Amino acid sequence: MKIGLAGLGFMGSTHVRAYSTLPNVTLAAVCSRHPSRLAGELSDAGGNIGEAGRFDFSGLKKYDSLEGMFADPDLEAVDLCLPTHAHEAAVVAALAAGKHVMVEKPMSFDHASCQRMIAAAKQAGRILMTAQVLRFFPTYTCLETAIPNLGTIRTAAFRRRCAMPRWGAWFTDRSKSGGGIFDLLIHDVDMCLHLFGTPVAVSASGFEDLANAVDLIDARFHYAQGRTITIRGGWHPGAFPFSMDYTIVGDAGTIEFSSIGKPPTLYGTSETSELPIDGPDGYASEIAYFAECCRTNTPPVRCAPEDSAEAVRLAILMRDSRELNGERISV
User: Quick one: 271 exposed, middle or buried, by C-beta within 10 A (0-12, 13-18, 19+)?
Assistant: First the structure.
């Protein structure tokens, strides 16, 4: 399968590395407004998982406009690693051009926008998937088989923190980035949906000052039978390092993980053991899954666009509750 990649910033460069490991998927074209990036110079596109470096794009088609790439008849699908505010227009145009589409998270920061993209995919008869990569990370996919062994889940907490990204001036503009809630914590919102379903209510507190690179939230997803799941974190001031972690507590034990030195570990009532996390890179797995959905024209059940839209809706409620001083909002 031949795929074109649009956007060669931090996430685009991360996807470029992933394509090089996939035997049945070909990165056939790249698109960027920046001539230096089309030449393979991505050393200024590093982020919270390492520096991007330089790539050899000599064998790829190169486009400086989305329209040009979408018109390429050799491309079966496109991978859109664009700023969030550009997602809807690019997704709809690509679908109208007959391409399958994978779009970076968050799908949008407006729920109606998500619904329009889903409708456009159905009308075009093409695959649409949001790159909610946490659903493919081994340190999180291991929870799918481990959580049932915990018995009744009593509580859980997911945390993700870093400094505001510096590879785009648009991050400080909420209308373009959605802030740290949408850019960063949308991962954990989506994971809660994946593992536990939609809550009955949302409440949150925190503080936002995007002009000074701060967007913090402490959100609670309220479920039936009194279970509460917490999502904490966001953008911290200064050069704060990236980290992610979770704690899940059930009647039969606790599972805990931290990206800073603690692998997923089950603290059971009779023994302690590390969870198996063997598996390919999450980004490569996500792209391979998308490509297989395109080949078979099968909707992406593992990462359905409807789920990604629901994550956006919940993120909006989190922000709304924070602005209402923690008022509990029914989902």
Answer: exposed
